[in-house]
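W.,

You were right to be curious about this one. When I first looked at the sequence I had no strong expectations either way, so I just let the prediction run and decided to look at it fresh. Below is the sequence, 310 residues in total, followed by the output.
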Amino acid sequence: MKVIITIFTIIVFAVSSLQLCAQDDDLFKKCEDSLQSLALVLGTDSVEENRTNAVKDLIPYLVQTLKHKGSFSYPFDSVNGMSFVYSPDSTFRLVTFQLRRDDGSNRYFGAIQMNSDELKLFPLYDVSDTLPFHCNKILSPEKWYGSIYYNILAHEVDGDKIYTLFGFDANDYWSNKKFIEIMRFEDGKPVFGSDPLIVVTDSLGNSKEYNRFFIEYKHNSNVGMNYYPEDDMIVYDHLKPFKKKYDGLYFAYIPDGSYEGFKWENEQWNWVKKVFHFSIGHRDDPPMPTPVLDQEKQKLYDPRSSRSDD
């Protein structure tokens, strides 16, 4: 009799849990639809004031959505215009999106959501308008180089977990940037550009260490930078100016068909000058939407502008 009661109790609990999960999914689907509506205005409206107002509505709604228990495991992957990227160990995820301004500049917004029973968010404040990009600057959530994050890697260094973040910045009318950046948690708080673990060695054997590494290129060029498991390395396009007279002017840089990379060895990313076995067929498709707005003047990040299998 006790066995029957126990089995019955388990069945009732399982059915109740499934009902709760279904209710949670219904709730998050409604939240996802609302976020999509706001993101659509943010990404497609031709009036800057309307896009700005969409951001003002989106931020508090996003926070309220993430306050619901179970939100961390809901992917929100149908929200075009926002990036939700999990760390490989599922300890946190990065949520980022952008506001394009009429002058060609961009303002980025984001948060780190921790995997915890109660909402634990670190809002990210974009200071790239006032703080020039620096490869060795150590930053915090309150001082953050704004970007859309599209991938995260995890490694251990001296027993501590460090993360490599992949970001995209629709810099201005003339150029885009992609970069990798080292991040770790110190006393439970994220630190951006925390460690100089990106090492570039020149032909003379001289090495330079960086906390972040970026490439800048012509705004409408198809340029990739991502980690490829089959090659076990970060691979990115080698760039050069499309005319020799533009040497040093990165808004004129385009891929030349060859590739460089970074290999994780000895607890650091070591530069690889040429990646001979890498083919153009590899993909670099960060989880971002189809852009709307004018292709030349009102630029949003379009993953399909990166290398594809086509």
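Here's what jumped out at me. The longest strand covers residues 253-265. And, maybe more interesting for your project: Helices lie at 2-44, 48-66.

Coffee later to discuss?

I.
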